[in-house]
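[agent] plan:
  1. take the single chain provided in the ticket
  2. run structure prediction with default settings
  3. attach structure tokens to the ticket
  4. add a short note for the reviewer (M.T.)
[agent] executing step 1
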Amino acid sequence: MDQVALQELRGAAESGQGGGHAATVLQRAIQLASLDGPLAAVREQVEALASTGPWPASEAAEHLLMAGGKAVRPLLTLLSAQAVGGEAEQALGCAAAAELMHDATLLHDDVIDDGQQRRGREAARVIWGNTVSVLSGDLLFVAALQVAAADGPAGVVSELVDTVGQMVEGEVIQFRHRGRWDLDLATYDQIVERKTSALFRWCARAGGRAGGGTADQIEALGRYGRHVGVAFQIRDDVLDLTATPAVLGKAIGADLAEGKLTLPVLLALQERPELEPQLRRLAESEDRPDLAAIEQLASAIRATGSLTAARERMDRELQLALAALALLPPIPAVRALTSVAEVVARRER
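[agent] step 2 finished; step 3 output follows
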């Protein structure tokens, strides 16, 4: 990867331009790291594993996979292998496991959240029902563990099992607080660390293991993945209040309607606690979400300045991620991880 290309990536990442531009930069990073072939191999493996299960669970999984996706987790896994001096091909199994695990959680999340859309299409649960969507996700969980066991280096499967446990714990804690207004920032952090950040951390560590990294390098990559994952979730929180359905690929204000206290909402309530009754009415309504009420509440939250505070927290997480990378040699893959993290955290979907 030449210096001009790296400067292009860095400058584009820092520009904070919109989602289409970010996607272009992400694709440029893939090309410059020569990952088109490995990512295509990962996708082929994921699709093959998803289609081997019994119908209709396999059909529901294929429906989700055919909608596309950013493949951020497999990309970070492959780049992490390269970052320690290995080859991307050494981490193909771990990258496939990462994508299977992520897709499994999406199938389950849509059931938990009564999701109607995913990646711009009807959610699998809308077409096949909740039972099939849950079972389809279960099959993908099993496939992820199997491919990690078959193709991953020692240690990645036990860490993946621990990661799944953390993800489930995070989901349970979030569910326990849904529609309640006693969630504090410490508990929010606990949810994000488990539900979202844990898988990013596993991807980076697994890639480092597969690439033959030292213990210190794997630890550094794990810290990078952890902080990127937190930044990724905060960006999701912000987009729930700022994006459009056409760009985001799912309903806007969904977290508000479900009674989820995301970071901008928590920060807004600290400044304007009188917003709580509006949040409560919206979350407790048994009718279809009132889009006008959602927009009115989102506008009130935006007016508090909580989005700016959330973005500042996201930027701090990014700086911690980049500090972790500073412990690795400044080779092209490490620089690509830097730029990709910045683009991902500024994405529009």
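[agent] step 4 note for reviewer: The chain is about 75% helix and 0% strand.
[agent] ticket updated
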